[in-house]
């Protein structure tokens, strides 16, 4: 069975310190957003939660995903991974909310999901009364709205705090080291931008995915209710189930890195182009080069070189990053 996630209670929206926001382990923050008007409305009833969203909505189009009843709420690939079991639409949020209400008594119901929509764009004024203090971090605040849905296990590069604003959600997390046991699908053809585990975590097929049994030995899980929050560290895999006919999640993403840094995913994709198909001995040589210059770099790495000649070995800043990016683009544009 998955392990419990460490829980912290008694904190309010403005009580988050660096001990929490820089944690390398997941944390459950019970009741963190219990004072939010959105949370109180959702606890009163689904219709009051729905009405609270509508009061802030001013007509912006949102992206939504729609799946048939046979999907059982799981947004995933089709059988041969050539497409998906849902289709995307752009619609008014009010139309999506109407669809959720209309289908709430169906079992199984078609799946309706608005994912990763910027709060300020979609719901002006919402953040004024429903927000977290993150110590000055420049966090992207997004909202997720739907009925009973399942989001396959994936990782995000930024750190993440997710707040259950209405309904209940079950989170199952895996440390980054479990990548090898999660049977990850395509990297460049994904349901929503991030590569996902191909394991059906509610009905795992251990004959097809035998190594998933080891991943489960390292899994962490918790069910959150309205006002509860979870801190998910960067690169932790997470599978999310929305358990009720009406669910709202608000999350914050931020990175512990300068703005000029590109996503490491770009380096991974470039490595496919430049290293993955090298002979084995050459790959080992490059593994050592990356260990020396990247993964174990310290003050001694370039200590034998005059400071004026450090070049890319020197700490980067905005100007240095811009120059390096220009060099790379020039080299690749052939």
UniProtKB/TrEMBL annotation:
It comes from the Bacteria. It holds the Pfam family Cupin_8. The lineage of its organism: Bacteria, Pseudomonadati, Pseudomonadota, Betaproteobacteria, Burkholderiales. InterPro entries: Cupin_8, JmjC_dom. SMART domains: JmjC. This is Cupin-like domain-containing protein. Residues 112-269 form the JmjC domain. Gene3D superfamilies: Cupin.
């Amino acid at each position: 069975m998955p392990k419990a996630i460490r829980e912290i209670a008694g904190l309010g929206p403005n009580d988050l310190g660096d001990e929490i926001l820089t944690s390398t382990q997941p944390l459950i923050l019970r009741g963190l957003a219990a004072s939010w008007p959105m949370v109180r409305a959702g606890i009163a009833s689904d219709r009051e939660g729905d009405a609270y969203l509508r009061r802030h909505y001013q007509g912006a189009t949102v992206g939504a995903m729609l799946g048939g009843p046979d999907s059982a709420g799981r947004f995933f690939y089709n059988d041969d991974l050539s497409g998906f079991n849902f289709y995307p639409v752009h619609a008014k949020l009010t139309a999506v909310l109407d669809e959720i209400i209309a289908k709430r008594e169906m079992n199984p119901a078609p799946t309706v999901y608005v994912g990763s929509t910027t709060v300020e764009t979609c719901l002006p004024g919402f953040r004024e009364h429903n927000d977290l203090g993150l110590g000055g971090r420049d966090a992207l605040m997004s909202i997720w709205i739907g009925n009973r849905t399942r989001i396959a296990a994936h990782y995000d590069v930024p750190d993440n705090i997710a707040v259950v604003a209405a309904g209940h959600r079950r989170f199952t997390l895996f440390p980054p080291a479990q990548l090898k046991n999660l049977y990850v699908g395509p990297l460049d053809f994904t349901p929503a931008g991030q590569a996902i585990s191909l394991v059906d975590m509610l009905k795992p097929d251990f004959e097809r995915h035998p190594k998933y049994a080891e991943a489960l030995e390292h899994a962490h899980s918790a069910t959150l209710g309205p006002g509860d929050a979870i801190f998910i560290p960067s690169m932790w895999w997470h599978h999310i189930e929305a358990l009720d006919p009406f669910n709202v999640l608000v999350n914050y993403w931020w990175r512990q890195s300068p703005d000029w840094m590109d996503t490491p995913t770009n380096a991974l994709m470039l490595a496919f182009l430049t290293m993955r198909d090298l002979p084995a001995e050459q790959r080992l040589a490059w593994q050592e080069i990356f260990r020396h210059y990247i993964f174990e770099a310290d003050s001694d790495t370039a200590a034998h070189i005059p400071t004026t000649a450090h070049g890319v070995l020197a700490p980067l800043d905005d100007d240095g990053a811009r120059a390096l990016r220009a060099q790379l683009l020039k080299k690749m544009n052939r």
